[in-house]
Amino acid sequence: MKRRVGNARGMSLVELMVVVVIIGILAAIAVVGYRKYIARARLSEATAMLAEFAAKEQLYFLENGQFIEAHNDSATVLFPSANENAGDFWPSDPSAYFDSARTPVNIYDGNGNLPVSWRRLGVRPRWKQLYCTYLVNAGGPGNDPPPGMGQAMWGGVTPNVPWFYALAACNLAGQAGWPNASGNNYVTVLALTHDSPAIRTVDETQ
Questions:
Q1: Which residues of the chain have pLDDT under 50?
Q2: 35-61, pLDDT tens digit by residue?
Q3: What is the pLDDT of residue 151?
Q4: What is the bridge-based pairing of β-strands 188-193 and 196-203?
Q5: What is the pLDDT of residue 56?
Q6: Long-range contacts of residues 139-146, Cβ cutoff 8 Å, at least 24 apart
Q7: What pLDDT does residue 25 have?
Q8: According to the model, what pLDDT value does residue 6 have?
Q9: Residue 154 DSSP SS3
Q10: How far is CA 92 from CA 22, 86, 169, in A?
Q11: What angle is formed at CA 84 by the lines to CA 69 and CA 170, rounded to 5 degrees?
Q12: Are 172 and 114 in contact (CB under 8 A)?
């Protein structure tokens, strides 16, 4: 019995290359979409944390008549705040390597405690690890905010009321660069102040 030979044939090299190119394009689109999803998730964390800082600052003000700093305990607690150094942020130093896209950082110190200033303010994050890093500065009427973001918040004008501002620095590019300056790999900075409930993205350079 003779077998009939059909016209079936394999894929040509051109067809194979077209398939590979299509798969590559779809993979690239998927990667971009995933990165945007991760960025939104990290910024959602920052938004929630800034809102908690703001709420706890208002409660503290009602009880004590002033706002207070919230930052790394190794920094000297000042009133009014005098600077916004990278070392004041908690739980990560935004001038060093930290990766908000992939690697969370434990919010507790080696003794299992939150920073004293966070506890004094009553901040109790719902997460044990955070991807972004945070700083709150505060002062009274006539006190100049620290140079940098602080002074930029009020356009260089000294507030005539008690004030605070909270910063969230998120490094979505895998490298850090606080303060944002020419030549650095930038962090994305969100901010909230005592006189505005709106959370602003004050530096989005990634």
A1: 205-206
A2: 666 666 678 899 999 999 999 999 999
A3: 87
A4: antiparallel
A5: 95
A6: 139/67, 139/79, 139/80, 139/81, 139/163, 139/164, 140/66, 140/79, 140/80, 143/80, 144/80, 145/81, 146/81, 146/82, 146/83, 146/84
A7: 80
A8: 53
A9: coil
A10: 41, 9, 9
A11: 95
A12: no
Question: DSSP letter string over 25-78?
Answer: HHHHHHHHHHHHHHHHHHHHHHHHHHHHHHHHHHHHHHHHSS---B--TTSPP-
Kind and range of the H or E run holding 116: helix 116-121
What pLDDT is recorded for position 76? 67
> Is 0.90 surpassed by the pTM of this model?
no
- d(CA 56, CA 107) in angstroms, rounded, equals 18
For the chain, what is the largest distance between any 2 Cα atoms, rounded to a whole number of angstroms?
A: 103
b/e code 38-74 from CB counts within 10 Å (16+ = b):
ebeebbebbeebbebbbebbeebbeeeebbbbbbbee
Phi, psi of 182 (to 5 degrees): -55, 135
Burial group, residue 23, by CB count within 10 angstroms (0-12, 13-18, 19+):
exposed
Q: Are 43 and 190 in contact (CB under 8 A)?
A: yes
